[in-house]
């Protein structure tokens, strides 16, 4: 069942078309990734969903009702530009944000304490925000975003600047919220996070939705005739070979697009015959990064959307 519907959103800033007829759907109890390069239109789209920007056309519908103040009360929103009161104590900050969402009392206080312990911030509860490291400030803001137990989480570039340990902790909590039936929408330009976490995605570029659907269906469609290869040796002989349509080097992995999807074993045989040390050979497999690059291209975004 669809929880959030984004329909034909458009937003311009002067002559710049920041978002151009953007549409996608977020199912209940799922993690949805809005993916794009910096400046692709992700933040502008999210700000329209949150009623921070009014779209020039289009609408946002949550469970059959057009978004508005009632929708915002159900959302935990973490903006790309973090905003905390620097002189306020950590615990006072959490209580303040919970109260803004209409939540007070012992239950909130208990949950705040539990989250501070989980994020190893219990000893900083009475510290001022300005005395925390940037990473710890980001953890406080995340706790403030989820403390009121929102129905839907909207997270703009959540993982930016976090170390691997805290990144994993946030991922754990997001997955726990998904298990509780929450709807999670996050924007990112980091494909690895999206591939591991998302059930559904939309790729936006220069304000337009270029690709939209379930991760499973998208990968199935794009993986046909694709080989993910990890190897040692020189495979330059594959360039222009009759079996091969395209070769894309991603560093640790090389993506090879075959002209005929049924010829993956012929490719493997050729590699072995040429003395290539094949460490990994995944036929009909493709990474989200490969799909992303294939979808939006490698050209630079010159003055793109916000």
Record the SSE blueprint.
Elements: E1 2-13, E2 16-27, E3 31-35, H1 42-49, E4 57-62, E5 65-66, H2 69-73, E6 75-78, H3 90-100, H4 106-118, H5 134-146, E7 152-156, H6 164-179, E8 183-188, H7 191-197, E9 200-205, E10 208-214, H8 215-223, E11 226-232, E12 244-249, E13 254-258, H9 264-273, E14 277-283, H10 288-296
Parallel strand pairs: 3-8, 3-9, 6-7, 7-8
Antiparallel strand pairs: 1-2, 1-4, 4-5, 9-10, 11-13, 11-14, 12-13
Helix pairs in contact: 3-4, 3-5
Shape: globular
- Radius of gyration of CA atoms, rounded to a whole number: 22 Å
Give the strand line-up of the largest sheet: 6-7-8-3-9-10
**What is the string of helix and strand elements?**
EEEHEEHEHHHEHEHEEHEEEHEH
Query: How would you state the average pLDDT, rounded?
Result: 90
Number of helices: 10
Structural class: alpha/beta
The helicity comes to 25-40%
Assigned CATH class of the largest domain: Alpha Beta
Number of domains: 2
What ranges have pLDDT less than 50 throughout 5 or more consecutive residues? 299-304
CATH fold name of the largest domain: Rossmann fold
Quantity of strands, as a count: 14
CATH architecture of the largest domain: 3-Layer(aba) Sandwich
Distance between the termini: 30 Å
Spell out the CATH superfamily of the largest domain.
Answer: P-loop containing nucleotide triphosphate hydrolases
| Main sheet overview | 6 strands, mixed
What is the strand content? Answer: 25-35%
């Amino acid at each position: 069942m669809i929880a959030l519907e984004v329909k034909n959103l458009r937003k311009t800033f002067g002559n710049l078309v920041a978002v151009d007829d953007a549409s996608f759907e977020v199912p209940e109890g799922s993690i949805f990734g809005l993916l794009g390069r910096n400046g692709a239109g992700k933040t502008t789209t999210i700000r329209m969903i949150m009623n921070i920007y009014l779209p020039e056309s289009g609408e946002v519908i949550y469970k059959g009702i057009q978004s508005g103040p009632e929708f915002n009360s159900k959302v935990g929103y973490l903006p790309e530009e973090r905003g905390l009161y620097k002189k306020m104590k950590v615990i006072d900050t959490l209580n303040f944000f919970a109260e803004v969402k209409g939540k007070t009392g012992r239950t909130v206080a208990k949950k705040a304490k539990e989250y501070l312990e989980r994020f190893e911030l219990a000893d900083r509860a009475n510290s001022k925000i300005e005395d925390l490291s940037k990473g710890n400030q980001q953890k406080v803001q995340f706790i403030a975003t989820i403390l009121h137990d929102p129905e839907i989480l909207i997270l703009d570039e959540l993982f930016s600047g976090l170390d691997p340990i805290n990144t994993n902790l946030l991922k754990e909590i997001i997955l726990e919220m998904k298990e509780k039936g929450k709807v999670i929408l996050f924007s990112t330009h980091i494909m690895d996070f999206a591939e591991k976490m998302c059930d559904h995605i939309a790729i936006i570029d220069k304000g337009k939705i270029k690709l939209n659907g379930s991760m499973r269906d998208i990968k199935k469609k794009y993986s046909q005739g694709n080989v993910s290869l990890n190897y040692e040796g020189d495979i330059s002989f594959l360039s222009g070979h009759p079996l091969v349509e395209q070769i894309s080097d991603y560093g640790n992995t090389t993506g090879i697009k075959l002209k005929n999807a049924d010829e993956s074993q012929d490719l493997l045989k050729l590699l072995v015959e040429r003395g290539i040390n094949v460490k990994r050979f995944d036929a009909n497999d493709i990474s989200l990064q490969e799909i992303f690059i294939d979808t939006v291209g490698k050209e630079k975004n010159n003055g793109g959307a916000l």
